[in-house]
Each structure stands twice: as C-alpha cells, then as structure tokens.
C-alpha cells in the first residue's frame, strides 16, 4: 500500500504534524520519533525515555536529501561512503549544520544520521517529506521494545501513535560509524 494511502501511516503523519511523538518499527527495534524541528516534541521524546540530553539522538530518513539540511559540509568522498551504505543499517556520525538544536546533538558538533531500509520507517519519512528523530522506544535502562505491545507496556498512553509492523531482521541496534574517519563507534 502506498505510504500516503496507508491509514496507519496517515495517522502517524498527522500526529507528527501536530507536534506528536510516535513509535514505529525499524531495522532492529521499535523507534520513538518526532519532527526534529519541533523543540517541544524532541523534549517529550527525551522525557519519555528518561534519556540524558547529552547523549543526542539519531535522525532517520527515506533518502539523503532529507538529511542534508541537518548535516555540515562533507567532501564528495565522505558523501559517497554514506550513499554506498544506504539505505541500510549503518548510522553515520557527521558534522552538524550550525542551526541544528543541541537537543538533537547532545551539545556536540556532530549528529547521527541514517537512511533507513526498513519499509515502514522509510514510508513514514517519505509521507512526511522529512527526516525523523529515531531512538529506541523504551525508558533508559530497559530493554528496547520489539513490538507495538511492548511500546504500550513501557510507555503507556504517552505515545500519540504506534504504527504497527514487524521490526527488521537485526538482532542488535544498527552499527554507528564516524563519517570522517570510518571508526566504528557501536558494532551492529
């Protein structure tokens, strides 16, 4: 079903456009997300997770164009490296554009980004026409939710919309690499 006609995707997009927080399946776990430009929604994500803001957040997208406004200047070689791994389960830490909120970066000069290969997560980004915040849908210190029911059990009614679907085949969260050096920061 096309993302714009899928009723669950439409409901999630409406929640996002109203400043809401949603949960959705990703490559390994359910993600908790919002519009990265909505400061109140980003704050809600951090509060729901009980996450220290200094840890920063990941942005996912359906294509690199949705991430470019958040990224600082990168060489064509580095951009090629990112494009070669996407869509796919590799998150890259890149220099961040000057206007990006420290709530997304954890106060760093870098930001974690990924073009997702998960069909539901990609459909959400495509239907919204933008990148989304993506962090595991659980309270800090608890096991990441792998089903919509687990999201509801851990986070209750605080999530505005849970998009149904199965998580991808990864047993661990996506690999995270530093874009400028290629260094693995978290093995996948």
Give a brief rundown of this model.
By secondary structure, the chain is α/β, with parallel strands linked by helices. The chain contains 6 helices and 9 strands, in the order αββαβαβαβαβαβββ.
Please tell me about this protein's structure.
The structure is a single chain. The chain is globular, with a radius of gyration of 15 Å. 29% of the residues lie in helices and 20% in strands. It has a nine-stranded mixed sheet with strand order 7-1-2-6-3-5-4-8-9. The chain has 188 residues and is an alpha/beta fold. The chain has a single domain, classed as DHBP synthase (Alpha-Beta Complex), CATH 3.90.870.10. Strand 8 and strand 9 form a beta hairpin. The model has no long low-confidence stretch (mean pLDDT 94).
Determine the CATH topology: DHBP synthase
Question: In percent, how helical is the residue content?
Answer: 25-40%
Distance between the termini: 30 Å
Indicate the CATH class.
Alpha Beta
Number of strands: 9
Global outline: globular
Strand content: 15-25%
Largest sheet: 9 strands, mixed
Poorly predicted runs? none
Q: What spatial order of strands do you see in the largest sheet?
A: 7-1-2-6-3-5-4-8-9
CATH superfamily: DHBP synthase
């Amino acid at each position: 079903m096309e993302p714009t006609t899928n009723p669950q995707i439409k409901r999630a997009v409406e929640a996002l456009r109203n400043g809401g927080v949603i949960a959705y399946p990703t490559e390994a776990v359910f993600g908790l997300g919002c519009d990265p430009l909505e400061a109140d929604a980003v704050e809600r994500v951090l509060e729901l997770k009980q996450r220290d803001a200094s840890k920063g957040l990941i942005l996912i997208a359906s294509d690199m164009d949705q991430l470019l406004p958040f990224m600082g200047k990168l060489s064509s070689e580095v951009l090629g490296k990112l494009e070669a791994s996407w869509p796919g389960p590799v998150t890259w830490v890149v220099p961040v554009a000057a206007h990006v909120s420290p709530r997304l970066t954890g106060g760093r000069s870098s930001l974690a980004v990924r073009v997702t290969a998960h069909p539901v997560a990609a459909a959400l980004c495509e239907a919204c026409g933008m990148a989304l915040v993506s962090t595991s849908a659980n309270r800090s210190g608890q096991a990441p939710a792998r089903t919509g029911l687990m999201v509801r059990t851990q986070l209750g009614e605080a999530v505005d919309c849970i998009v149904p679907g199965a998580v991808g085949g990864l047993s661990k969260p996506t690999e995270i690499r530093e874009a400028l050096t290629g260094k693995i920061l978290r093995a996948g």
